[in-house]
Amino acid sequence: MTTNGGHEPVFCTIVPPHVLDKLAQHEDSALATPARRTLERDALERTRRRLTTVIGAPAAAPPAHAADQPHRTVYDAGHRQELPGRKVRAEGEEPGRDATVNRAYAGLGATYELYRAAYGRDSIDGKGLPMDASVHFGENYDNAFWNGEQMVFGDGDNEIFLDFTIPVDVIGHELTHGVTQYTANLAYYGQPGALNESMSDVFGSLIKQHALGQTAADADWLIGAGLLAPRVTGKALRSMKEPGTAYDDDVLGKDPQPGTMDGYVHTSQDNGGVHINSGIPNHAFYLVATELGGHAWERAGQIWYDVLTGEELRAQATFADFAKLTVAAAKARYHEGEELEAVLKAWEQVGVPTS
């Protein structure tokens, strides 16, 4: 039994382990030491998630706030690793001097607003779950994560990564792992794990687009734009428009994401390449959204949301399973129109069968 009534919380980070592994091996200690510390901390958090799954955790208290309104609390970890830290901003309080706190608070709100306005969802669990976040976690911590209960943000090392509250899609990405936890509960390895990561990239991007009022044509379709330090040759962590082009750097190496099944990566690392092969369903969503035009959270996002929350998506789903469900969802909501054609065409382009 877990805090979410039987759905297994997984430990999900925005920076993939393969990126930190490469940094940890660098000869420059200014790059290697923060990466090593981050990997050590991430390993500890993964162990804690497994223990929570085995022994259970206390049930969360019901939210004490009005329905259809966020209930945000931001804590300052003070560069320590004890969570949640000191409470620094509660729901409804005015911005303070700490820009990191203000960005975290705004990002929680932007995430809540996309799910509420576009899909009628009340917070992460659909039942008004309070949204908690801790900032200034650890010393030069090179990651952000959802630990099954709250958001946590590092400040980055200022060599490779900047403050992890800067890109709102990073905040939305990690919180969407919580939405997946409370809905389809996709397993975190292989193709279901890549789908889990892709869901977070899709809705993370939609949260940014919604906050900025962008159309599919206006959007940059990047995940983590603004996160990489100036010395890095790259524009983001991932690109949904052009998987494999987000960075090509002497330190980080080249973005390994494929955009089609022809480039599918078979690996034992990163839970079977969940952050790598997610480029394939990411690209399929981009193709659907840009084919349909307008606001991507409306028709394309609605189809993906219908599948995520429709109770037919199995925890062990493959890309083909998911693709077939998007076809069924498009038919159910939009019948035999352009939405269905866009979905069928997109999956064909990335090499995933729908029948």
User: Which class do the helix and strand fractions yield?
Assistant: alpha+beta
Number of strands: 10
Q: What's the rounded overall pLDDT mean?
A: 92
CA radius of gyration is 19 Å
Poorly predicted runs are 1-6, 51-59
What's the helix-strand series? EHHEEHEEEHHEEEEHHHHH
List the total number of helices: 10
Q: Sheet bearing the most strands, described?
A: 6 strands, mixed
> What fraction strand?
5-15%
Distance between the termini: 36 Å
Broad shape: globular
Helix proportion of residues, in percent? Answer: 40-55%
List the strand order in the largest sheet: 1-5-6-4-2-3
Offer a quick outline of the entry:
The chain is built from 10 helices and 10 strands.
Describe this structure in words.
Residues 1-6 and 51-59 have low confidence and may be disordered. The protein is 43% helix and 9% strand. The longest helix is centred in the N-terminal third of the chain and has 27 residues, at 29-55. It has 10 helices and 10 strands. The strands form 3 sheets. The chain has a 6-stranded mixed beta sheet, with helices on one face. The chain has a two-stranded antiparallel ribbon with strand order 7-8. A two-stranded antiparallel ribbon has the order 9-10. The protein has 355 residues and is of the alpha+beta class. It has helices spanning 17-24, 29-55, 99-119, 168-182, 190-212, 270-273, 279-292, 299-309, 319-334, 338-350, and strands spanning 12-13, 72-76, 86-90, 131-135, 144-146, 151-153, 222-223, 238-239, 248-249, 253-254. It is globular and about 55 Å long.
